[in-house]
Amino acid sequence: MLNITAVTMARRHMDLPSRTTSPVELKVLKFPGGEVHVTVQTEVPADEIAIKAHLRNSEAVMTLLMATDALRRAYAGIPIDLHLPYVPYARQDRVANPGESLSVKVFANLINAQNYRRVVIEDPHSDVTPALIDRVVIDDPLPALRRVVGHVLTKNAGLALVAPDAGARKRVLKLASQLVLPVVFADKVRDTRTGKITGTEIQGDLPDCALLVIDDICDGGRTFIELAHAIHGKRDGRAAPIPLYLYVTHGIFSKGLDAVLEDYAAVFTRNNWTTDDRAIQA
């Protein structure tokens, strides 16, 4: 899904700039053979163009590239900014086996070739993604998380953040430091013979408060379901269940929310890929 906005700049009294935004219509036609044709509205006044792109598949990537080309032709010389909340292929950020593609670099090369003035992304999966994209800006995750924390604290006296695995530890530690909240660490347990994940292990004791699990992506949800079981299995003899919440920046929820909501009191996300409004907008 693409949303295109034209921005015009004017000067008001005391030379203060005034920004006016107007939508730019995008028409997408798909031919019987599967090819996509795009047309952008051409008569909208613009000093700059902003594209917000939710790219959920490879066809959407091609649509973005074609729309960008159409905008370059219709609005020659006008700078274009791209807001790309979720970066496709960001999870394929290394070559694990011979013969594989470094997919995130392939995608980054396509984006860089468009020569956007800047590319705003949200909560990249690893440091590899922002290192590969030119003129990248990482959107501040703190305001959305503050809203989630505020919501949880209306129902609970205290709160700790949970890093679900080693990959999330650095991110969660930084956020916890900014919010002055304690952190619980979890690690995935692997079979040393096969390398397969066999469970989740909670490090240390659990605090006597609600827990908010934080990660960048929830796809099918298995990681978070197993984490919830590990947390509830470590209740340390407490009679009352531990209030457990989940916040993910990118809620793909490819297997739905039913199974996740069996273990979590609420699920929050910034980018809900579904139409299920049980995922609370952060």
TrEMBL record:
GO annotation, biological process: 5-phosphoribose 1-diphosphate biosynthetic process; purine nucleotide biosynthetic process
Any one cellular-component term (Gene Ontology): cytoplasm
Keyword Aminoacyl-tRNA synthetase in record: no
InterPro entries membership: Pribosyltran_N, PRTase-like, PRTase_dom, Rib-P_diPkinase
CDD domains reported for this sequence: PRTases_typeI
Keywords: Nucleotide biosynthesis, Plasmid
Origin superkingdom: Bacteria
Domain called Phosphoribosyltransferase: residue spans: 159-232
Domain Ribose-phosphate pyrophosphokinase N-terminal span(s) in chain numbering: 23-113
Molecular function GO labels: magnesium ion binding; ribose phosphate diphosphokinase activity
Family to which this protein belongs: Belongs to the ribose-phosphate pyrophosphokinase family.
Name recorded for this polypeptide: Ribose-phosphate pyrophosphokinase
Source organism of the structure: Burkholderia sp. M701
Taxonomic lineage from the root: Bacteria, Pseudomonadati, Pseudomonadota, Betaproteobacteria, Burkholderiales
